[in-house]
Write a structure and sequence with these properties.
6 helices; single chain; 72% helix; transmembrane; aspartic-type endopeptidase activity
């Protein structure tokens, strides 16, 4: 059982899942996660979180954002991840219950592996002809992490609906 409440996950999912899909799409197409998507994700938490979470938990979740943002800035400065990825992680962090962090890390690892393999298979197959102008097909070793990051948040919330406390 996850620590996120099924109620909170149910409140968040209808608003967050389309953003996650958009992030995955734009990152594959442009190798870019837009600031507008990240701000919209944060705005969803600010508005929906006030209704979905107890007030004290709602306020504490902003510390998740701050910690993730500082870590993301450091990782971006070190050249380990893109700025859009770092900002998406920071905007997504308040949606995650701290008690689910271990589960989330395992889910992220599985999502990265699945996204990487599916992207590389699509890139090398005829599927890439469906969207020949996507930058991710010809980006060399660069990989659109938005696929894995958006997928992780979406799967976490859906899993939270089913197995949340």
């Amino acid at each position: 059982m996850l620590s996120i409440s099924a109620s909170a996950a149910t409140w968040f999912a209808p608003f967050v899942l389309p953003i996650c899909l958009y992030v995955s799409f734009t990152d594959m197409r442009e190798l870019r996660i837009t600031n507008q998507a990240n701000l919209l994700l944060l705005l969803v938490f600010m508005v929906v979180g006030a209704f979905a979470l107890p007030f004290d938990a709602y306020l504490w979740r902003y510390t998740h954002l701050a910690v993730a943002l500082v870590a993301g800035i450091a990782l971006n400065a070190g050249g380990i991840m893109g700025a859009g990825d770092a900002k998406f992680i920071a905007a997504a962090a308040p949606f995650v219950h701290l008690g689910d962090l271990r589960f989330l890390m395992a889910l992220l690892a599985a999502s990265i592996l699945a996204a990487f393999l599916s992207h590389r298979i699509a890139k090398l197959s005829r599927l890439s002809r469906l969207a020949p102008d996507w930058k991710s097909w010809s980006s060399g070793n660069r990989f659109p992490m938005g696929m894995a990051l958006g997928g992780t948040l979406a799967l976490y919330l859906v899993t939270g609906i089913v197995y949340g406390s």
